[in-house]
Structures are given as structure tokens and as C-alpha cells.
Fold these 4 entries.
Entry 1:
Amino acid sequence: MFEPIKRSRRSQIGIWIESLRVRLFIITLILINAATLGMETVPTLVQNYGSILHRLDQILLGIFVVEMALKLYALGWRFFKSGWNIFDFFIIAIALIPSNGVFSVLRIMRILRVLRLISLVSQLRFVVEALLRAVPGISSIFVLLLIVYYTFAVIATTLFGPDFPQWFGTLAQTMYTLFQVMTLEGWAEIANTIMSKFPYAWLFFILFILIATFTMLNLFIAVMVNTMQTIQERRQKQMRSAIENATHSESEKLQYEIRLLRAEMGELKTLLKNNKD
């Protein structure tokens, strides 16, 4: 007798905690918490309002704990079937660890609560899901980029290292310099200085920038866009399939009711005919 009532209560709490109104409320609290954590980095604000900020932080954490407890109660063990729920649980669990003594460094981890916006906003979840699904393709591009880096680093260290050791003295220095060149930050100054000794060095720098900056960057973007498009098409296909299944079910139900109605009408006609006879 009490089990259906208990399940119904759990279901109602689950629907309420996942409702749009509650989600918007939690998102607002997360943004407020992010603002208070930022204010705690300002010494004058901490000196004047430190106790208020600390108390507000504790209240917000308490609300987040209650929200998580309600989700656990509503979903039970099904709560841990969702990766986003585990992500939220991990962030709240870190926040509950005492931030004193050897755990004082964990006080910085409170800012991770802002990351809960990712799990609450569907658009952000979509971007993160696309990024995770694109990891294999991005890893291949990253390996290719490392090969290009290493090749150009060996060439630059051999050619320019003896005369410009501050940039190309060792392989590690060269790779750091090439990274700076790839970001297009101060590369013209480096290239012009090298060209004073090696007039044709511009060929090396332009070729490296074309391959490492423009080509590789476009490959990264292409993989991300392709992955996002694939996920979007899959979701649209699932939605169309669900709509078609629902429509088919309604159509079968309607046909079944029509057959029942025809059968009842046939029985009624037979009954009327028998009464006339």
C-alpha cells in the first residue's frame, strides 16, 4: 500500500527538481556563487565583507547539497547512470571536504561549482559532448602537429641555433619559439632578426605558419564542426523516430477503436433486425 505512494512521491520530486523553474533557480545561484568567489579575491572586499561572503558561500553550498540529496532520493541508483549527475556529485563532494590544514588547497576548488552550468544548460552539454566525441580525430591531428613541430624544430636548431641560441639554441627552446611563431605573437621580429643573417629564412617561417597555424587550425575546426553536425543529425533522427513511433501508436489505437465501433454497430443492427422480425 505504501510502496506506490513512495514511488509517486519520488516521481513528483524528480519532476519538480528537473523542472525549468528549479533549473533556472539553481543556475542563478551558481552565478551568484561565482560572483562571490571572485569577490573573495579582492583584499578590500574580504576585509570589509569577508564574514558575509563566507556565510553566503555556506548557504549556497547548503542549497546545492539539498538539491543533490533530492536528486539522489528521486532517482535512487539510477542517479549514477548519468555522467552529468556523477560530475555534479563529484563537484559537490569536493566542496564538502574541509578546507583547512592539509586540505587548504582544496579551497581553490570551490570555483569548480561554476562548471555545473555545463550540466544544467543543454547547449553547453551539447558542445562538451561534441568535444569529447571529437577526441579521437583531434588526437590524430595533434600527433600530426607534433611530427610537423619536431621536423621544423630539428631544421631550425640545425640552421639557426649556432647564431641565435636565445631562440634556437636547444631543441626545447626551438619548439617553444616555434609555438610563439605559430600563435603569430612577435614572429615578425624573430623572422626579421634571423633574416639579417639568413636572407631566405622567410621561406622557413612562412611555410611553418601556413602548415602549423592555418592548416592545422582549420583541421581542428573541421573535426569539431563535423562532430557537432553528426550529433545534431543523430538527435534529429531519434526525434523523428520517436514522433513516428508515437504517431504509429496513435494510428493503431484509432484503427482499433474504429474496429470496435464497427463491431458494436454491427451488433446493434443485428439486434434491431431481430427485434423487427
Entry 2:
Amino acid sequence: MRFAFFLGCTTPFHLKAYETSSRAVLRGLDVDLVDIARFGCCGYPLKNVDLKASLLSTARNLALARKEDLHILCLCKCGFGTLKQGAAALLKDPRLLDEMNRHLEKEDLCYDGRCEVFHLLTVLHKHVGLEMIRKKIRKSYKDLKIATHYGCHALRPSEIVRFDDSVSPKLFDELVDTTGAESVAWPEKLACCGGPLLGINDSLSFKLTEKKLAGAGQAGARFIATACPFCQIQFETMQREYPFGRRENHGVRPVLYPQLLGLCMGLDKETLGLGNEDGSLLEQFLVAA
């Protein structure tokens, strides 16, 4: 299977490990990724400033993938949600779609609605499949508890993103279970990471983040699993910079899901972008499959 690989803006510049670990894991699962050099911003930063400019950014990316006869695989849940919502808005309003296509004609592009957008976790769960992932496992985790963080953009609006049940999602938990780790139940599972408030109200932003990390620790988790650059960076920033972070979060560390899975598949820590501390801790829980 082949997908157009949509990195977005944040991952390549601020969280390279997410890209490298995802590429390595998907390669090991026989998923081909096609890099489209002309991909640009998903349009999210413009949404509340100039909606049509935002939609044009979305339409352009969709058209670029469509020109290659490919569907899109996103790493960023914000990018995923933006592309999904933009595509739905364009298909709902033919006049708006025509307007966008008139702009796209200048680049010899056209969006006809036949490009689907998937998140990394959806591709792993629905396209690769849990059974195929299990066949690639060389070592499994034992006695490792993980708190899954779903994030906001993948779940809502549910009728458009169609990622999972927005009230009781299970997709991410099932992917964690394939590694042998235990996905714990915790009240803050679907709560916001606090990232959208960073730079606007830092105190409230970090309080929301700390509440999530503390809740994960109280549920017995050693790590909180993410699959979004913004959420991962928010949790990392919380532990690095906020004064009471390390005292209150019970030692819970954020980890990207492809890093968690990659170790089970026999990939080395360097390829996965895992630091020595987190990588060594995870390795302590690995046993032969």
C-alpha cells in the first residue's frame, strides 16, 4: 500500500524523531510513503484569520496527492483534522470548490474530491491491521502500563473525521495492546493536552498538561503515548520547563507510538530517535515474543 506522506510544518522542524520513527515502522510493515515536495501548510493557522485562504491551502495539498493518485497519511492530528474538515467543506459547497479550483488551475492542479485523508494510527489499525503488526513483533513489553492520549483534532467533529468513537475510542488502546503493554483506564484520557493555550495563557496551559500527566501516573502508567507532534512537544515542555511538573507528574514520560512499537519490532533506539533514558527504561520491559 502507498500513501502520500504529509508531514505538516511542526514535525520536520521540531520533532524529527516522529518522522524518522514513523518512516522506519511503516517501512517494516510494508507501507510505501511518497514524499511530495510541493506539500505546504495544511491551512490551520489561517482558519480564524482568512477561512478561504485556509481552505485553499487544504485544497492544494489534496490536489497534489490526487495528481499522484494517492491518499494522504498524516502524522499530525491537527493537520489530519484540518484536511478532513476542509475536504468536507469543499464537497458540501460546489461553488466554493469551483472557486478553489480556479486558483489551483494556475499550478495545473484540481481537487475532485477523490483523495482520502488518514492518520498514522488509522493506517496502522485499519490498513495494516493488528494481526500483521503482531507478526512483526520480535519482543513484547511485560508489566508496562501505558496511558493513551487521543488528542482533540482526531476525534471531533466525529461525523467528519471518522477516526473512532468520539466518546469511547478504542483504536489507540488496541494498538498499544499489540506491543504487550497494558493500556490503562484513566479519567483524563480524552482531555486536552493544554497545547492550544500555550503562548496565550501559559499557566492554564501547563495546569491542564500537569493534570493529564498526574492522572496518568495515578492510573499506574509509566509512559503516556502520543501520536501528534503538538501533544508530544507539550508534554515534553511541561516536564522540562514548568516548576512543579516533575514533582507532580509521578515520573510519567511521553513517548511517540511509533517509538513504542519500533522497539518491539527490533528497531534501534537511534533510528527511533529515543533518548538514552527513555529508551533504556522501555527496553527493561521487553521480553522475547
Entry 3:
Amino acid sequence: MIRYSLAIPAVGIFLLAPSISFHAQVSPPPVSTASTTAPAPSRPQTTLSEEEQARLYLIKKQFREAQDIYHHLTVEHPKNAVYWNELGIAFHNQLELEAALKCYEKSAKVDSHYADALNNIGTIYYERKKYPKAIRAYKRAIALKNDFSPFYMNLGYAYFGKKEYDDSIASFRKALDIDPDAFDISKNRSGTIIQDRSIRTDRGLFYFLLAKSFAAAGNIDRCVIYLRKARDDGYADINSAKSDPSFAKVISDPAVQEVLAPKPIEPTQP
């Protein structure tokens, strides 16, 4: 599943007020004693541009509708890198990865400094488990925008997939240095694909590395969450946290100690 975060710009709203003209009356009309009902006020009308409508479709996960509009926009504005990138996102969310990759590559060709498109190219390679290509794409994106935590997060996942765990943990730490809430998927990150966090293999190790990242950042609450996940997933080397320098800031915390404490042996049934 692709996680996509989009910040929609303020929608232009145009209130169409009815034109009113006043005419002089020669003689006033007779006053009626019958009750009259005031006409219902007219409703304001809203107008969305094609771009705004397409982004709204993305937010609503109506990806086919978004695809149709963005396709039209790229035909009308072939030099607009954003439209090509958003069209790629629409394809991506429909799992049409080859079409998505071509759109991202077109976006990067139109604007070689568009970091989001390069990041999104990396996510295609990541999903295809071509981790070296994904890493190169992420590094190109970071070279253009080195203060954006999602790029470092994606790089960390790619290094993890390649089993280069030291580089993975360093990337996660960098993401957390930039934004302590980097792993909050509810945050708006317009135009940027963030990889699926569901790790199918080595989950215990993955959770331990996340705990290690949060521990190094001094975030006890998040550290405990992922340390407990690592323990519950059966990570065998969890006690290495006691001597790992990355856990030095949090190791004495009671919540951390509780996670690392050996489980009591349950009495056997007679």
C-alpha cells in the first residue's frame, strides 16, 4: 500500500450575488394582509480549477479520476513538472508502476531540480527490490533538498532492504534530527511518496533499529514502543540495548527497564 500525503491549497471561492436593480413605482401596491414566505437565500457557488479538483480526487483516493485530469493537464502543460509528478502518483496508487515511473522520469527531465520526482523514482525501485537504484535516487533527491525528513526515512528503508544496517540507522537518525515527528504518517508532505512501513522480514531487527533511532534522539516514548515491538516479535538480541551507546540516554528509564526485564517463568501445570 502506498502512503501519500497531500496538502491541498486554499480553494478559490467565488460568491455570485444576484444583481439588484431598483425601479421607481408610480403608485405603491396595496398592502396584503396574507402571510408571505420570504424566498430562500441563494446558495453561494464554488468553482474549482482543474488542478484543485485533481488534488481533491487524490485526497479522496479517487485515483482514476485524478489520473484523467492530470493527463489532460500534462497535455496542455507538458513543461509542468508538478503535473507529471502528480500523474505518476495517481498511477502509483493504482499499482501501475511502469506508468508511474515514466511520469516521474518525465517530471525529473522537465525540471532536473525537482527533488520530489527523484524521491518518487526511488520508491518504484524500492518496491521492485532494486535497492542500489533506490538509494541513488534518494541521494539525488537529498542533494537537492537536504532538510526534508521523508527522503532520509526512505533512504533508511532502502538501506535496511539492502541489509546495510549502520547506514539505515544513520538515515533514520538524520530524519529524526530534522523532524522529531518524522514517523508521523498523518503529516502533510505534498507530492512525496513515503514507502510502506510494513516490513515482511526481519521485523524484530527493524523495530529494534527504530527503537535505537528514537533512543539516540532522546525520545523515550517512541523508543519504548518500538523496543516492545522488537521484544514481542522475538528479536533475540534485544538485551544488547543495555550496552549499546545509542541507548545511553534512555536505558535507566523505568519503562525501558520494564521492556528489557526477563519475563517471569510461568509455573507448569501439574
Entry 4:
Amino acid sequence: MAIVALVVLVTIALRIRDVSHHFWLMGDQVRDWAIALRPFTSLPLVGPPTHVHGYSIGPAFYWIIWVIRVLTGPFFHNLPHGGGIGQAALQSGADALLLVGLWRRTRSVWPALVVVTLLATAPFDLALAAVVWNPVVGSILAKMAIALVLLDWHRGSLVRTAVVAAVAWCAVQSYTGAIFVAGGVFVALLVDAARTGEWAAVWRRGLVVAGTVAVLQVPWVIYQWTTGFGDTGMSAVTDSLAAVFTGQQGPRFLASATALVDAFIWMHALPGSEAFWALVLLTAVVTVAIRYRADAELLAVTLLPLAAAVTGFAFWVQDVEPYFLLPLAPAVVITVLLAVAAVVPTRFTNPAGALFLAGALAIAPARAANAATQLRMPYYSALATGAKEIAALGQPIQSIDPAFELPPGCNAEFLYLVLGGRLDPRAPWRAIIRRDGRVDYIRAAGGGR
């Protein structure tokens, strides 16, 4: 418990460091945090829109950030960086589950600590940790589902099976790219009973999984019913599949596998060539498949999602961005670390584990420094400070403009509105927020008295 508590505290501190100064307040965050501020009954029945003109096929993401807003928002004036802190805490909770699950599965604390350290300090993951964004939440839930399988928690009852299935499917609702992990989790829920020939148990668990997914899709069905089933939200996927199966384009297995390797290199800021890391991953997959061939559940949540992702994205005709594969990060890191551990002689297991952990901790500061160069908005603190000053006046303002350039998608007035401020085109003053957060008030042209 002491080790788990330490991991949670350290990873939270790492993830939320200075978030109130550099929170990434872009268009997606403005939209989604504004939705989270609504009453629960006003939340959408589907998830956020995607850049490929679809949307996530369920409201789990909005449910989760709404709960985070209720729990953490009041401590931070309901400003969006409070949501980032709550999301980071949820991520660290998932790390704790994964730590215990791997510890139990491998019967050694060292691989578990190394995996969690490498995941928590991966520059791309760390940069996103406190950014309220649905791919991050989908990845957190996918990690939780993997951890619960490694803990064998689902074996306790059918209710537990339903809970694990719900976590996995909520990951898909939050971010469609988590489907490959969810598929592996579903297989893991059934495979132990299938391996022993308990087919009645397989059927029962299969029905529970299917029923859980069906219940979670009720909001989507209601949404489709009210909109006349005009858009399922999966048009980009169906268009890609149609293009391949009609012969317009061929499946791209090599490009898909390359995208997985490139994403792994990008997320972890790894040195070396693409060919080198492709060989490392392939060797690790083969090693784990041989060493853990008797542990079908472990293979189902590590190797199966990787194979499914390579196959699935082979039928995706658009570019594969690195963040598409964010939910697969735990499976990749676990696979590589288990492969390394598998070739270490038993008598050297503990010294080697301690050495690997020392190495992971040694590179952590450099990885954190790398993360600090990504997805940061240094003027967030100025916007928040200025918004608080303007809102404290208790008077409407005509407009708020920054005295510095904001990235496209950022809304300089959003924080003021969150704090209860009012914009009125007839107000006599407009505000200019400086770089240090101080505010200048300028008589507005056409404003009232």
C-alpha cells in the first residue's frame, strides 16, 4: 500500500505541475468544459465530434468530465484546469491499478514499477495528462480495463465481469481508438472459461458482456431515434472500409505496422531508427507470445490489441496520427518489458529489475523536460488572473481581448464567462488582459453609460 500510495502521489504531482499556468485551452477544451458545466440532464447523448466528421458513439466522456467537474471544480472556481487536475488524478489511479495488476501477474514488483514509470513519464502522454480531451480519457479507461483483467478481478462474479466490460466499452465511447483494447479485454473475459471447456460459463459471460454494451449504447440509440438515424457517427470508418472492399484502395498492413512503431517512438521520444524499434517490437511480441503462451488473458490484453490495431488501421485509408494509438501505449510497454524480463536468468531477476527501475528513473527528468515543450499555453495564467479581476467587478463588459497572441481555437472570454461574468455589447467598457494578468479598461465605442 505504501508503494502504491507513493506512485499515485508522485505521478499526480508530475502530471499537474504548473497546470494552472499553462493549461492547454483550445477549442475542444472550451467546448467540452462548457458542456461539463451543464446539469447532468443536459449532457449530450453522444460523445465529442471527431476531426473526420463523426463523433464518439456514446456519452461516457461527458459523464466522466461532468463528475470530475462536480468533484474538483469548486476548488478551482470551476475553471477548466481543475478538470485537468481531476483527469490527472484519474490517470494516476489507473496507474495504481496497473501497478498492482502487473505485480500480481508477474509476482515481482520490479516489472510493475518500471512499466508504470515509463508510462507516466512518456513525454507525449505526460504532456496530455492534464489536458481535458477525450482521447486521454479513453486511454485512461483502457488502462483500467487492462489492469482489472491482470488482477483477475472479473473472475469473482458476473457482476464484476459486467463492470470490467463497462469500463472497456466506456473507453470506446470516450475515444473510438480504444476499440482494439476493448476487444482484447472482451476476449480475456471469456478465454479462461473457454480454455477449460466450460462453455456454459462462456455463454453466460458473453451474454453479460453483450448486455453491458447494449445498455451503454441506449443513449446513442435514443439520439439516433431523435435525429432520424441520419448519422451513426461512424461514417469515416464505413467509408474507409467501403473504399478497401470495393477495390478503390488496397489494405495497408505495412503502413499500419509502421504507424504503430512511429507512434511508439513519438510518444516516448526514443532515440534510434524506425527499423531498429520495429525489430525490438517484433522480437518482444514473439518473446512474450512464447514465454506467456499459457497465460491467454495476459496475451489477450497485450498482443491481441496490437495485432488488432495493425489489422484495423490497414483498412483505414486516411493518415494514422500518433494519438490514434494512445490507448495501446500500456500494451506496447508491457510487452517490451515482459520480453526483457523473460530473457533475464531467474537468479538475476531482482538485481536486474532494480537496475531497470533505476534507469527509468534516471531518464525521467529529461522526459519531463521534453513533455514541458509540448501542448503548453503559457498565457493561460494571465487569462485566468485577468478574468478573475474583471469578474470581481460585478459589472458586464463589452469584450475581452488579450495583449498577446493566442493560438487558434482559444477563447479569451471563456474563463470570464465560467466565473459568472457577463458580456454585453452595450457595456461602456472593454478589457485588455496583459501578459502578466493585469487588466486595462478602455472606453468602448458605442457603449452605454
